Amino acid sequence: MADLETSRPNDARARRSRAALQRAFLEWIERKPIDQISIREITATAEVSYPTFFRNYASKEELIGDIAREEIDQILAVMVSLLDKKDPHLSADAVCDYIQHRRALWTTLLTTSASSAMRAEFIRGAKQITQQRGQINAGLPVDLAAAWVFAGLFEILAWWLRQPEDYPVRNVSQFLEVLVLGPSTSGHEFKLD
């Protein structure tokens, strides 16, 4: 993705075009499956020319990757701000609230062909957290803790978003707290040889 970012235009007009393309794509994914959305539909909704799409993205998959990166960055910001409080309950609730407010988008990102882009972004996020924060839990190797948190987060959220919309958000928050965030951030210290 870094090559894409450095090779595409980044002036104000190009950023506006990318934002319009992302908004248009997000409108379309609420109406029909990703594989049925055409680039022409996206550009028409975004009110940009067809060639503008290809100046910014080589494919719909790259557009999805951009959206995935931004969403993961947002969820990371929520999580990092709460990790300092060492309160897994608060962190889990905040993550679930964020996802619930963007449920249609996250359902598409985690339960369709876009999930591979999201998984890659979760891995990138895990590495970013590891580099920024260092030790997550005393005694647990940093890279393992980060991988565990994001793999668990991904799987629980993907499972939740395949459930009926009335599935209790509080249950999901408890799953995150008990299975992922609590053991990774709390005082559970591992005594390794």
Provide keyphrases for this structure:
Arc Repressor Mutant, subunit A; 193 residues; 0% strand; mainly alpha; Tetracycline Repressor, domain 2
Question: Can you characterise this structure?
Answer:
The chain has 193 residues and is mainly alpha-helical. It folds into 2 domains: 2-58, Orthogonal Bundle (Arc Repressor Mutant, subunit A), CATH 1.10.10; 64-185, Orthogonal Bundle (Tetracycline Repressor, domain 2). Helices cover 74% and strands 0% of the residues. It has helices at residues 2-7, 12-29, 39-46, 50-56, 60-83, 88-101, 103-111, 115-133, 142-161, 169-185. Helix 2 packs across helix 3 and helix 7 crosses helix 8. It is globular and about 55 Å long. The N and C termini lie far apart (39 Å). The model has no long low-confidence stretch (mean pLDDT 81).
Give me the secondary-structure topology.
Layout: H1 2-7, H2 12-29, H3 39-46, H4 50-56, H5 60-83, H6 88-101, H7 103-111, H8 115-133, H9 142-161, H10 169-185
Gist?
The protein has 193 residues and is mainly α.
Distance between the termini: 39 Å
How many structural domains?
A: 2
| DSSP helix fraction | over 70%
Enumerate the spans where pLDDT stays under 50 for 5 or more consecutive residues. none
Number of helix segments? 10
